[in-house]
Amino acid sequence: MVEEYIDGSRVETDDEYGRTPLLTTNQGRIALGTIKQEMYCVTRPCTHGWECPHNRDPNECETMNNNKASKCQSLRSPHKIRTGSVTAHLDTGTPKAALADRVDMTEDTMDIHYDKAGKRERMMRRREYLLEEL
After folding, report:
1. Where are the alpha helices (DSSP H) in the chain?
2. Mean pLDDT of the region 39-52
3. pTM above 0.70, yes or no
């Protein structure tokens, strides 16, 4: 998917430091606010044709207006997406040190605030890791 984006709709641009950002618009590097707004839009249940959990008609719901998407009670914030991503990477065996470097956080911060696995899931990770080492 990333290669398709790069080969297709990605706008070739450099930022003010001469770097080539992955996510771009016609104005250059995509702004964090734009990413956040897009996350609000794509995580609304009605965007995917699912039934509204609040019994609203999507044709009449004000939050279907992309500028008001953040008002939807069922969307997922970008922070929850980040948390889910960290947990998923850990569940698939990504070493904490490598992941911490990639997502720009300490392992302690990851353990305390981002890894949402329960005690059993953490035990299974350790078990799988230890079995690989044998």
Report:
1. 2-7, 32-42, 78-91, 96-103, 107-109, 119-133
2. 86
3. no
